[in-house]
Design brief:
InterPro entries: Aminotransferase_I/II_large, Kynurenine-oxoglutarate_AT, PyrdxlP-dep_Trfase, PyrdxlP-dep_Trfase_major, PyrdxlP-dep_Trfase_small. The chain is an alpha/beta fold. Helix content is 42%, strand content 15%.
């Protein structure tokens, strides 16, 4: 049988987590929290499940959750949306990204993707018959060369995918970036897929510049969010997509044939969480900034060069003063010999990268971070 994704193999996340388990290493590779989901959310999930709310929900999501998301958008981004018409609940953000790409990409279309990039973008584009056109950014600042992006525009260019705060670089797009982005979108009549799953995790009092803040950009955009990242419940696979009605209509046509609907008790629990403990969202940035700063301080005597982390729960380390190994080999050395599992940055590039940079996840307990840092400081 001819594969539709011939170059796709086991993901680096599965590989490193497998090695971490094999060598009993501290797993700072895969991006999931070590701590638990909020008590209210867990108790609400148990309540609704035990009370019999276990059948299909409406394909687009339950209305109370849509309305709570609308209130969240209004409070955080000062934007009023028609939640029933614009919000679709999905089985995780990755499903939302996949469906958005399938909704707008046709065979022969090109999509601009910025490397290092989340690994689901390209397969989704290729399954739609499109081509991912990669624009590489590099350490230490991972800045986008917008002149290069302009030069890549053609009659085949259909869409741009952005991710802010950015995984894996931990950078955020600035106002100047969004200004350039908007020029491109409007000039070439592009669609925009904005991956904003870490939207509530930005540091040093810097706001998240969501596409939802700009009506013109939003008119051509799918904005994807993740409850899993916000409420420490990545295993629930709950997310949502916000898009204008004409794009939402196309999105929902495909969504109904991918998952049809998402986990009903979780939707009800998330509705109550947003209504009763909305402050959790507002406190998330400070919660993770404390963890970021803890890890940075603990690494201050190491030979690693710590790169700026402006958002997400990731920290990049330049190890060029420690080893001449490429980043994949260095990460294998770390897990086998040092007892730390990390992620090499080169795997997020279509053409690879020679930057000697690894990614750590600091969504862990303080004790875990301190033990890991002690091991890394010995190198």
């Amino acid at each position: 049988m001819q594969s539709k994704l011939p170059i796709v193999a086991t993901s680096i996340f599965s590989k490193m987590t497998g090695l971490a388990n094999q060598y009993a290493a501290i797993n700072l590779s895969q991006g999931f929290p070590e701590f638990d989901t909020p008590e209210l959310l867990k108790s609400k999930l148990a309540y609704y499940s035990s009370e019999g709310f276990n059948q299909y929900s409406p394909s687009v999501g339950i209305k109370p959750l849509q309305l709570q998301i609308g209130e969240l958008v209004k409070r955080r981004y000062h934007t009023k949306i028609d939640a029933e018409q614009m919000v679709t609940i999905t089985s995780g953000a990755t499903e939302a990204l996949f469906v958005a790409i399938q909704a707008i990409i046709h065979p022969g279309d090109e999509v601009i993707v910025f490397d290092p990039a989340y690994d689901s973008y390209q397969p989704a584009i290729e399954l739609a018959g499109g081509k991912a056109v990669h624009v590489a950014t590099h350490a230490p600042d991972y800045a986008i060369n917008w002149s290069q992006v302009h030069q890549l525009m053609s009659e085949k260019t259909r869409a741009i995918v952005i991710n802010t705060p950015h995984n894996p670089s931990a950078k955020t797009l600035k106002l100047a970036d969004l200004t350039q982005l908007k020029k491109l979108v409007m000039q070439y009549e592009l669609y925009l897929i904005s991956d904003e799953v870490y939207e509530h995790i930005t540091f040093d009092n810097q706001p998240h510049l969501s596409v939802l803040r700009d009506p013109e950009l939003l008119s051509r955009s799918f904005v994807v969010s993740s409850f899993g990242k916000t409420f420490h419940c990545t295993g629930w696979k709950m997310g949502y997509c916000i898009a204008p009605t004409h794009l939402t209509d196309e999105f929902r046509k495909i969504h109904q044939y991918v998952t049809f609907s998402s986990f009903t008790p979780a939707q009800l629990a998330l509705t109550d969480m947003l209504a009763e403990q909305g402050q959790h969202v507002d406190e998330l940035a400070q919660f993770y900034q404390i963890k970021r700063d803890c890890l940075i301080d603990a690494l201050s005597t190491s030979r690693f060069r710590v790169l700026p982390s402006e958002g997400t729960y990731f920290l990049l380390l330049d190890y060029s003063e420690i080893s001449s190994l490429d980043d994949v080999a260095f990460c294998e050395y770390l897990v086998k010999e040092v007892g730390i599992a990390a992620i090499p940055l080169s795997v997020f590039y279509a053409q690879g990268s020679s930057d000697k940079v690894i990614r750590l996840c600091f969504a862990k307990k303080t004790a875990t971070l301190l033990i890991a840092a002690e091991k890394l400081c010995q190198l």
